[in-house]
Amino acid sequence: MSLRVRSLLALTIGTILGLSLSLGSVVFADRQTEAEQSENLLPVEQVRLLVEVLERVKADYVDDVTDEQLIEDAIRGMVSGLDKHSAFLDSDEYADIRISTTGAYSGVGLEVAVDDDTVRVVTPIDSTPAARAGIAAGDVILSVDHVPVTTDSLESTISKLRGEPGTLVSLGIQRKADAAVVSFDLTRELIHVTSVRSRLLEPDYGYLRITHFSETTGREVRSSVNSLQSSNDGPLKGLVLDLRNNPGGVLDAAVAVSDAFLDTGVIVTADGRVDEARFRMDAHQGDVLGDAALVVLVNSGSASASEIVAGALQDNARATIVGGTTYGKGSVQTVMPLSKGRAIKLTTSRYYTPSGVSIHERGIEPDISIQRELGERTVITPTRAEPEYDSDIEFALDTLKQNKRIVQSKAE
Predict the structure, then answer these.
(1) By CB atoms within 10 Å of each CB, which of 67, 99, 324, 334 scores lowest?
(2) Of the residues 214, 300, 304, 349, which is catalytic?
(3) 169, 192, 215 — which closes off a domain?
(4) How confident is the model at residue 1 (pLDDT cuts 50, 70, 90)?
(5) Are 316 and 385 in the same domain?
(6) For 251-269, what is the mean pLDDT?
(7) Choosing from 139, 242, 315, 392, which is the catalytic residue?
(8) Annotation marks residue 170 as catalytic
């Protein structure tokens, strides 16, 4: 490798690491002890190792690789190596993540995550090609367009699932570890990011499903409850809040939804290394349901923001949680914009339920369990697209009515 290329690589890597150090270090360096300053010095040997590897790749790899590609891959690996929820986002990936919380995108309608060294379906979004084809929460994606997927870059897999409306994509899906791989040929379409659906189950009892948490979900929930009460010609006696297979989304939306059903109490707390990552969210006066009973349906596909809502309503004794143990994602990711439309999604906090419990990799245990055995895994029957009246909803409705009778008995 030429001296010019070697110098360029060394300078680039040194600049990147130097900026990272300067941004992450204490501002008042003059107050640090010599030992503390020594701990913050760049690891020269590791920088030298990185440059040596780059030199070898540039000189001997079978194909030509650009400096830009190598450095971006190094950054991507650095961030993804922190935990399975942190990631480097190129401009397209950053645009995708903004779309998923604010608008619409073209794809097949799958929420996916890395789990046990596999790319696993967290949930199919209702009324999308994936949901109509029968792809279910817990399914493992082995290939996209006959190319094996890896867990190294979840965002890359998501990008491959998306594309122009009307184009075909083939997915290799495995439902159980020892099962045959099933191929699904799906046609991409415009996925409208709507998050709340509602209807009356019967007079006085409503049903509200949140498919994911976007910036508008809090407003949509209040509007939907008001519409249900108008359709009922009066206040509801009970509401089923369905969070099954809801993968999460915007933290503020989870807080807004919890606040809609609480008059007082802590909703969620979080702890991190910087001041902005440490916070506490409290409820405000004004329960949109009044004194009506509330049952929350959850399952193993209920994650992140869904777990914040379930934990807040459970710990504040506002709702009965029914279903299965939730996914167990107890961390908060912050998307930090970079130059040229890029960004990093970085885990910045761990959140805690009002009782101070972390649900990370544990999940929230329901008050009443509804579990069915399917092979080696215990799962909750996934919610079908626009379910009219599945057995879990029926159970939740019965629970609401029993709660109503208990309240009347106590009042007497």
Answers:
(1) 67
(2) 304
(3) 192
(4) very low
(5) yes
(6) 97
(7) 315
(8) no
